[in-house]
């Protein structure tokens, strides 16, 4: 590949600067190898974390990030070359979920070194297979191994693990156990004193290698960096983004422009809530769900209300309706969500009819609550959690909306959800179909990920509604849930 003179001059400038510094950054090495490299803020962050890792004795780093954003090439190729350039005697073990992927990674590193002689590295002529090779004149090099492959007798001055479990294996406990045994019994035993380790992966399961390292390898001081596709909380976002802002993608359109917000939104709709949460946001949850299982929810497929000309909705055949509001504004656009649900009850069955879930400021929250109350006039009871921003809202609306009741929960979030979970498990909680409510997939996903998901606002509004509608009346009356109750004996008109 011919390199334009201006690009070549820039490369020589980087090499000259590197001679007066510690070494080239992984990003600079990437540009030397391929001048078309797109350096994004996410890759800037990864570069900084990799340099921190090299400077930390016995450093341990885990990176999760959406697919096709350059993380594998940056870590497996550019960072390994960075380490070899810094110390050509570094013996690197590069692992992957199978030998084929490991071989490909090893060959990628080797070809890159051969393509950029300016780095001053050369592959040994008598040791040059794609999965195992050394540098000319040095003991350093790369051994590429698939998961489960033995590395007995092979010392490691650095270990790089790229996607140790494939997508098809992610839900297999046997595969996850095999991966863990590979790390604990084989790879980690080969580490030299002070050797760094980096694990990069797209997360599919909460019990994957990164999940187990955080839970079980607590003494090692693992630093976990998750870069979500979309900012969830500006206060903790690793890229310093605003709420809801998508990452600048390394993937480009044909005209060289980065992926647009509309393209990100399309991708989000295509993959669905569970895949988006795990693969793109780095928040995996069990396939069946955690405390609240995915297959517990009953679904209704036709609207249970009529809509009048003025836009108001009137529920048909319900004993009562209420609005449950979990509020989390801060006066400006907040990192947390406001969740306001409209619920109806038929004897011992609860139906989620409508919901607003957005990141809102104080004024926006007031507007949406007032609008929802007008839309559902039968919901005369409005439950508002009396903490955080709840008191401010209650004070503001006390004379404008009737039926606002402050709720002061005394139990923790998990304990409250555990109390109503049997209602969902036994088929007494109904959700609208995706055709009726496009937001219901995100609702189910948040509840399935609870209590480990990034947000729990929809769980909280659900807890308030079901406690007031179902649990308290049952406890007060000493009744058991009876699925044979005749709804017609209890319904009210509209």
Please provide a written account of the structure.
α2 packs across α4, α3 runs parallel beside α4 and α4 crosses α5. The chain folds into two domains: 276 residues, P-loop containing nucleotide triphosphate hydrolases (Rossmann fold, 3-Layer(aba) Sandwich), CATH 3.40.50.300; 196 residues, Nucleotidyltransferase, domain 5. The protein is α/β, with parallel strands linked by helices and 494 residues long. It has 14 helices and 17 strands.
| Residue windows where pLDDT falls under 50 for at least 5 positions | 1-21, 330-335, 478-494
What CATH architecture of the largest domain would you give? 3-Layer(aba) Sandwich
What's the number of helices? 14
Secondary structure: helix percent: 25-40%
CATH domain class of the largest domain: Alpha Beta
Rounded to an integer in angstroms, the radius of gyration calculated over CA atoms is 28 Å
- Order of the strands making up the biggest sheet: 3-4-5-2-6-7-1-8
Work out the count of structural domains.
2
Total strands: the figure is: 17
CATH superfamily of the largest domain: P-loop containing nucleotide triphosphate hydrolases
CATH topology heading of the largest domain = Rossmann fold
The largest sheet, given as strand count, sense and whether it forms a barrel, is: 8 strands, mixed
End-to-end separation: 75 Å
Mean pLDDT: 85
